[in-house]
Design brief:
Oligomer: single chain
Number of domains: 1
Strand content: 5-15%
Helix content: 40-55%
Low-confidence stretches: none
Mean pLDDT: 96
CATH architecture: 3-Layer(aba) Sandwich
Radius of gyration: 17 Å
Order of helices and strands: EHEHEHEHEHEHHHE
CATH superfamily: NAD(P)-binding Rossmann-like Domain
Number of helices: 8
CATH class: Alpha Beta
Strand order of the largest sheet: 3-2-1-4-5-6-7
Length: 253
């Protein structure tokens, strides 16, 4: 079953990790994918992988902290393909590693700019196009820190809590127009971002997985992509304003 056959999808943060896995999975489900990332060469690699597998893709550089670039990415998508059916707002900075008392407010501002303000900028322009169409689905990437923050990352926790607030607000505004807005909240997932975070904290993968998953392992990016696919597709047609934890049972402990 090609859940997104003929649809146009935009994915932010698509160079590596969950974003790249999502772009590839959406293409396998039949979507034409616009792969965006601040790392333009990484976005191009993802688009090339999609095309090597027989899919259709367009790569574009996108810094989500620049609203002009966000607007241009949506406009480019519509100019090339005529519409925007679904979007996954995945671009993010890694967690901070400071206490509240030791917080660096410049670092806080930079992280909020990407992980929260960037999500709002993307939704603003994606939803405007979807309103013109009368349909669409937006998936924002939160975190288990949206529910259960880790000590030592106040900026990341604040941003990911905020993503759920934006998701629920947008869903309540847009449902009557045929647009659904949901969030996927991954647990510990094997990505370059997590690997860097573990290195900085001096913890092993085994220790991290044992503490953060009832399965005792990390999630794979493809497992997160499957959740985003379900929420983006018509199979979740009666779901909006929802935050889906994909966390190996971590938040159930």
């Amino acid at each position: 079953m090609l859940e997104l056959e003929g649809q146009i999808a935009l994915v932010t943060g698509a160079a590596v990790g969950m974003g790249a896995a999502t772009a590839l999975r959406f293409a396998q489900a039949g979507a034409v994918v616009v792969a965006t990332d601040r790392d333009e060469s990484g976005a191009e690699r993802t688009a090339a992988r999609i095309e090597d597998l027989g899919g259709r893709a367009l790569a574009r550089r996108l810094d989500v902290t620049e609203e002009r670039e966000v607007a241009e990415a949506v406009a480019t998508t519509v100019a090339a393909f005529g519409r925007l059916d679904c979007a996954v707002n995945n671009a993010a900075q890694p967690p901070d590693h400071r206490s509240v008392v030791g917080a660096d407010l410049n670092e806080f501002d930079r992280l909020i700019a990407v992980n929260l303000r960037g999500v709002l900028a993307c939704m603003k322009h994606q939803a405007a196009q979807m309103l013109d169409q009368g349909s669409g689905s937006i998936v924002n990437i939160g975190s288990t820190s949206s529910f259960r923050p880790q000590p030592g990352s106040p900026a990341y926790a604040a941003a990911k809590h905020g993503v759920l607030g934006l998701t629920r607000t947008a869903s309540s505004e847009l449902a009557q127009h045929g647009i659904r807005v949901n969030a996927v909240c991954p647990g510990a997932t094997r990505t370059p971002m997590l690997e860097e975070a573990m290195r900085r904290r001096g913890v092993t993968e085994a220790d991290h997985a044992e503490r953060l998953s009832q399965f005792g392992r990390l999630a794979e990016p493809e497992e997160i992509a499957e959740a985003s696919l379900w929420l983006a597709s018509s199979r979740s047609s009666f779901v909006t304003g929802h935050a889906l934890a994909v966390d190996g049972g971590y938040t159930a402990w």
